[in-house]
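During the reporting period the student researcher (J.K.) took over the structure-prediction task from the postdoctoral fellow and processed the backlog of single-chain submissions. One of the processed entries is reproduced below for the supervisory committee.
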Amino acid sequence: MKILVTGASGHLGGNLVRRLLKNNQLVKVLLRPESNNEAVQNLDVEKYYGDLRNENAVLEAMRGCDRVYHCGAKISTQNGNSRFLKTLYDCNVIGTIHILRAARQYGVSRVVVTSSDSAVGYNPPDVADENSPVYPFYPFFPYGTTKVCVEHECLKAFADGLDVVIATCCAIVGPKNMLI
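J.K. obtained the following structure tokens:
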């Protein structure tokens, strides 16, 4: 089985790649050439260079893969100007749409898409649980809004028969983390 990992240059994706290799999986990574790709530099992975915003690059990277872990995203806690917001949307939402389309085209068995607790939002003073309403649409936090859009795209793909899992992550800390 060959597995595509996006976002492999990041903390989560890099650790995931190392775990998959430890479990003797064949791994292919989609990397942006302008990113710091040290996380996978000396690993036995097939490297494909491209951008999630380019559907042809995603199709080429996914060719021959049976499973996908989509960890790639633009992360930001800032608001920014309209150009920045378009980049954020294009990387996160359009990039995910490209992943889902390619997975359907190639008959990928499962797509795992990482999301964020930012998609849930903040509802003080209540403690949130699985039944809590979602309040992500803050005008000052567009990243969370893009992650809500990502989750909606995944749910639509799932309803159309694609095996999609959304992994909602929060404050990931672990090996090779800059904070440790």
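The committee noted the following: Residues 119 and 144 are 5 Å apart (CA to CA).
J.K. will present the remaining backlog at the next meeting.
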